[in-house]
Amino acid sequence: MAGRPREFDRDQALQQAMLAFWRRGYEGTSMSDLVAALGIASARIYAAFGSKEELFREAVALYAAGDGGFADQALSQEDDVVAAIQRMLADAVALYTRDDLPHGCMVVSAATNCSEQNDGVLEWLRAQRQARTQSVIDRLRRGVSDGQLGPDTDVDALGDFYAAQLHGISVQARDGVPRERLLASVSVAMTPLRIAAGKA
């Protein structure tokens, strides 16, 4: 008599899939990799999640709702715009260099280049990154409205700059740049915003 099939915990499987995609990216994670990471047969993965792409999208949503939600928290919870941007960058360094997680940002590193058949994934991740840039611009614009930044502040340019810092921290963390150096770079990067806020 055959043994009973292993009990399937969908939430746990999704967590393992997230870590696999975070570590190797979308195309770098094969179905056999997912079978090994989740500990269940590919047929059960398809039955539970539909497709590799649907599983990936759910994994990104899990990332954004958990560890990856640090930027939204920093931008919404800090009343001072300088503190909000500094916390966002410092929290990025803290997450992207954790020893118990893959280094870097899942959304930044999961797919910057894909084969043509995965253009949909590429475009979807690009939209995720563009939305992050817009959220930074919106927070800076609120800083102008609140009188924390000068009325002539170029919020688009500053927003692009801090989004580039955020994404650059991810790349450097993946390359093994130490946490202390990344935090030092955050301190330097805050200078333009401090000037705009009259705090330099």
From TrEMBL:
For this UniProt record, the keywords arranged alphabetically read as follows: DNA-binding, Repressor, Transcription, Transcription regulation
**What sequence ranges are listed for the domain HTH tetR-type?**
7-67
What Pfam families does the record point to? TetR_C_13, TetR_N
Q: Does the keyword Transferase apply?
A: no
Where's the DNA-binding part? 30-49
One GO MF term, please? DNA binding
Q: InterPro entries, from UniProt?
A: DNA-bd_HTH_TetR-type_CS (IPR023772), Homeodomain-like_sf (IPR009057), HTH_TetR (IPR001647), Tet_transcr_reg_TetR-rel_C_sf (IPR036271), TetR_C (IPR011075)
> Known PANTHER family for this protein?
HTH-TYPE TRANSCRIPTIONAL REGULATOR YJDC, TRANSCRIPTIONAL REGULATORY PROTEIN
Q: Under what name is this protein listed? A: TetR/AcrR family transcriptional regulator
